[in-house]
Design goal:
Length: 229
């Protein structure tokens, strides 16, 4: 394995990193252009061995289809499982981590490449930029925050990449119930929820990510119909 390479990604000058979505994202890709899967996952291993098993299965499916992985760069928990599994298969695994966490020595030291960012905001933007599809594995509030941001950016048209969830052992069911409740309560459109790809089997999830077609956002920007006279 080659020595670890530290890279500080360039953020456009004068742009705040927390709002740099459209500026740091390369040309939009549809599902048919899959090259690298961005995996959001936990720095903890979880209470059940099924979470690590499903993570290894997801990594195996990604590698079997000739794809690479980009993730948060950690060496512990499910993040460590992602990196160790992909590297053991001889695949490409790129990490992205804020400098402060690298200095705390939580970064994986055998990655294909580790990109070091100045803060969490630029880390998340860089992960979205590098991934041609964005997928959440089981995790806590950090994982949930990352996949929600990627999902919101898709709704806003900041990127046109597929966003998915590997719903291991129904782990994400309460979250999906909340999203359906938000639709029922009038705070989210059903068209937006339909954009989120949810599967429990890795190869089926990748198949749907490949088949993803970006929506026509214009139809959702129309003014609501006038009330009857």
């Amino acid at each position: 394995m080659e020595p670890l390479i530290f890279v500080t990604p360039e953020i456009p000058a004068g742009k705040p990193t927390h709002s740099a979505g459209p500026d740091v994202t390369p040309p939009p890709l549809t599902g048919s252009g899959l090259q690298t899967i961005c995996l959001y996952c936990a720095s903890s291993i979880g209470a059940s061995p099924i979470f690590a098993e499903a993570t290894r299965a997801m990594v195996g499916a990604i590698h079997a289809q000739g794809l690479g992985i980009v993730y948060g760069g950690g060496s512990t928990g499910l993040m460590g499982v992602v990196a160790d599994s992909m590297l053991a298969l001889g695949g490409e695994c790129v990490g992205v981590m804020p400098r402060a966490l690298v200095e705390k020595e939580v970064a994986h030291r055998m990655l294909t490449r580790l990109e070091v960012t100045e803060d969490m905001h630029s880390r998340k933007a860089r992960l979205i930029a590098l991934g041609s599809a964005l997928v959440a594995l089981p995790g806590g509030v950090g994982t949930l925050e990352e996949i929600i941001e990627a999902f919101v950016w898709l709704q806003l048209g900041y990127h046109r990449k597929p966003v998915g969830i590997l719903n291991v052992a129904s782990y994400f069911d309460p979250f999906l119930t909340f999203l359906r409740h938000a639709c029922t309560a009038g705070f989210m459109k059903a068209e937006y929820l339909d954009l989120l790809i949810v599967e429990s089997e890795p190869f089926r999830l990748l198949e749907r990510l490949r088949a993803f077609e970006p929506p026509n956002f214009e139809k959702w920007n129309r003014a609501p119909p006038a009330p009857p006279a």
